[in-house]
Structure formats: structure tokens, C-alpha cells
Amino acid sequence: MQIDAAWRNLGLAHASFRATEQKEYRELVDGLREIERLFFDHPELAAYYDECQRPPAPGNSAQPALSDPRIRHVVAIQAQFMEEVYFVLQLARFPNALDNRGWMNLFRAWGASATFNTIIDQLRHTFTVEFLEFYDSYLGRYPGTIEEHPVPHPWDPLLARADPRVAATGAREGEDTTLHGAFLDSGRQEAGGAGAGRRTSTPSPGSGSRGVKDETGNAGSPVDQTQSAERKAPTKSAPPNA
Fold this sequence. Notes:
The protein is mainly α. It has helices at residues 2-13, 22-41, 46-52, 71-88, 101-111, 114-122, 129-138, 164-169, 187-190, 222-232. It is 45% helix and 0% strand.
């Protein structure tokens, strides 16, 4: 029985990228809308909203943290939502997937906020160790986007696994400056089953394949399905697609 369980676990670990089911994804989008509505309904939070919506860049996390006590509750909601997305989208395995690009960049923007980091450090006892390890390694205080600093693989050379934050802040004595990486990130090239070479748009929260099935049973976005239908239609008199 133990051998059977081990084989099942290996099968799950080696499974390719799975686009999120529509219901799961809609729940995540609804959660993000609730956070956006919270900021909209409370204009006194505008300074913090601006801080945590800046694109991740060097120096962002070095800004002084805001001291407004009302922000603590908002950060707690953001961090709990971030942890939920981490587990639903399996970001530990698919951080570089094209479908997850927008989420990773949104969370790096939050993680570049000095205020967000100050409060999440105070709330660490309320989160899972697994999520905190991922946040500390690939989201918090990052100097750039997922395109600029993708999550490496364990088999990448040491230079590719160097922590990009060290160049900006310097390493403390005895600090490990090498990232462990995501072990099986097959989503890097096959997000949504569409194929990396075919995507011309930029997926973000609210877009992407999200488990929609076309007539062949493959996952793909409505745009992908339209392109599939166009390829099947007669094109002898039509000019080639640009």
C-alpha cells in the first residue's frame, strides 16, 4: 500500500500544468474585487493603495512604512488572500506559468510595500510555513517583475539561482544567497495548453485560459478557441494573419 501511495504522489508531482477551473478562478477574482472595493470605499487608504500598487522595482521596499493603524486590517486581508491564491494556483510549482504572470506581479507589488512587509512580519504566526517560505523567497521585497526575475529551477546554474535582492541590499554574514527554485515548473512553457509561442497578449488576473475547453477538449482561452476555428476554416482567398 505504501508503494501504491508513493506512485500516486509521484504522478501528482509530475503532472503537467492544469489551468484553473472556472469556478475556482472566479472566486479568486471576486476576492480581489472585494479588496479593490475596500480601497475604493475608504479614500483615507489612498496613500497605502498607491504604495502597494507600484510596479516592483529596486528601492520600493526601502520607503518608510505608513503608521496608520487602519491599514493593519487591510494588510491582513491582503495577506490571507495571497495565501489562498498561492494554494489554489499551486504557485509553488507554477510560479512562471503564463496564466499566473499577473498574480505573481501583483503580489510582488504588494511585497515591495514597506508597510505591507512591516505588518505581515507581525502576523507571521497566522500563516502556513509553506506559504511564508514562498513569500520570503519569491515575492517579498523583489526588485522586479516575474519576467525580469523568474523563479529558477533547482538544476539551474548557481548564477541563475542567485537571489536578485542581494545585489540591491547586500548579503549579511552567513546568509544563504542562493534560491532553491521550483522543482517542477512545467507551466513555464505550456500554460493553459496554448503553447508559449502562440500567445501575443499579456495574461493577468482576470484573463488567461482558466480551464475553458474547446471542441477538441483542450484548455484554452476564448481567443485561443477563435484562432483554432480560424485555422480550420478555408483560407484560400484570405490574406495570412499578421
